Amino acid sequence: MGTSTGLALRRKGVEVYLEDVNAAYVEVAASRGAGSSKRPSDVAMVVVAVPPDHVGDVVVAALRDWPEAVVTDLSSIKAAPLATVRAADADAGRYVGSHPMAGSERTGPVAASEQLFDGRAWAVTPSEAADGHAVAQVRALAATCGATVVELGPDEHDEAVARVSHLPHVMASLAAAQLDGGPETHLALSGQGLRDVTRIAGGDPRLWRQILVGNATHLRTVLQRVRTDIDTMLAGLDGSTSDVVGVLERGVHGTKLIPGKHGSVEAGWGTVYVQVPDRPGELARLFADAGESDVNIEDLRIDHDPARPSGLVEVDVARDNVDVLVDALGQRGWRAHR
């Protein structure tokens, strides 16, 4: 996250300086163009990108080492660092927490990208003590890195990410953990649904332990709700109750609440399934043929089973354009269906 921030800022010509307890990380980040390892005499802003357990202490140190600088952090937990700043009687006016909603299961400067934040939400979480200038500077940081600012209070942020970020990681890990020790013949039946559900479970367990424990209050609340739903499902598996359908229907409703492209709801989309041969240039040809049909692709997913010589591409388009795209692709030799 830190290296990606440096790369995104350097892309816009901002002068960036790098520090880390691991000198090798600084060397790699600097070699990739994220900034300079030379310590400056003065800075306008300090961006703290360290594991959650250390964020508060590093923020306090930055506030003291750079008495004129605005200080922010990129941690996925916001109330805990703020509490550390207050307990240390540091200058809370110059500290404004933030959290870019971007990243992947890969970590370290080698995994960084200057495009990581482009078009993504970036939470800015000022406390009541935050100076207006400091808030404006952190908002500008997010915008300069290509993100869209969402301003929330620190505690509201932690409640939100417990639901939309931390819980999904826990659920992915629980699902992936059930695969361990299973017969290989079972895994041969794996499809895109399993990959979708388990992809984010590949994150660093030690880092995620810090995140989950750091947001325990809010995460515990949503996990208790999940436990209630699981109990309902278990009780209904004998077929004697319709409560199972109730949980599944709430799940369907929940998927419709997730914002889609430009914040829209995806309920107006339909899916076209296209079989794509596993050879170079086929995806480019599919995009070109779809473009010639004057149908805009809203989203796309690829289900590629290594055992098959082709992949199944799921193309989301406006519902009114589903049949148009199926017909257009069929005329161009594609095997497509709705």
Low-confidence stretches: none
Please count the helical segments.
13
The run of helices and strands is HHEHEHEEHEHHHHHHEHEEHE
> Roughly what fraction of the amino acids lie in strands?
5-15%
Q: State the name of the first-level CATH class of the largest domain.
A: Alpha Beta
In which range does the helix fraction lie? 40-55%
CATH architecture label of the largest domain: 3-Layer(aba) Sandwich
State the oligomer.
Answer: single chain
Average pLDDT, rounded to a whole number, is 91
> What is the rounded Rg?
23 Å
**Numbering strands along the chain, what is their spatial order in the largest sheet?**
7-8-6-9
Quick structural gist:
With 338 residues, the protein is an alpha/beta fold. It has helices at 2-11, 23-31, 52-65, 79-87, 132-144, 154-177, 184-187, 192-198, 205-214, 216-236, 243-257, 282-292, 322-331, and strands spanning 45-48, 70-73, 97-100, 121-125, 148-151, 269-277, 299-303, 310-318, 335-337.
Describe the structure.
The protein has about 350 residues and is an alpha/beta fold. The chain folds into 3 domains: about 150 residues, NAD(P)-binding Rossmann-like Domain (Rossmann fold), CATH 3.40.50.720; about 80 residues, 6-phosphogluconate dehydrogenase C-terminal fold; about 80 residues, ACT domain (Alpha-Beta Plaits), CATH 3.30.70.260. It is built from 13 helices and 9 strands. The strands form 3 sheets. A 4-stranded antiparallel beta sheet has the order 7-8-6-9, covered by helices on one side. A 3-stranded mixed beta sheet has the order 3-4-5, with helices on one face. Strands 1-2 form a two-stranded parallel sheet.
